[in-house]
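Standup notes
- DV: blocked on the single-chain target, sequence here:
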Amino acid sequence: MMKIFHILLFAVFGLLKTYGQQNFIEINGKTNVNTFKCINDISGESQKLSFVDTQLPELEIKVGGFDCKNRVMTNDFKKTLSEKQFPNMYVKFLNFSKTSNNQYLANVEVKIMNKTQKYQINFSNQNGRLSAKKNVKFSDFQITPPKKMGGMVVVKDDLTLQFCLDAKI
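- DV (later): unblocked, structure below
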């Protein structure tokens, strides 16, 4: 089982996968053994998010939509986020402003498992595609990083939240 876990963690390691005109959120993390990434394609929620109106987007993200490219890892990830009790997480844009050519700053509220944190996130715009990375922690949301294999594999507290959004700016 441990060997399979190592192989799977190695298999999911890689560069950010580019999705053509899709909206997705990716959560990247590390263990004491390797790295992992779990992607949620949220294209069905809204094809093009509008940042030109006074009402900014609020994303409802189904925890069940995350795919870690491995069934066991995906199930563990969903269990860590208490999918059955909290089937959705939310990302609400509180404000959004241009800071320079193709660069934007957003104040964003992220809600996971009924715990809310506010973050400032720098976005870049490439042909109507907003992308950003933000470092967060499991502990920001009072989530204890899981341990697997009798404590031999320990998930680190640090996560990187990545956004790729098809946007109207």
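- Follow-up: The chain has one domain: 2-14+22-168.
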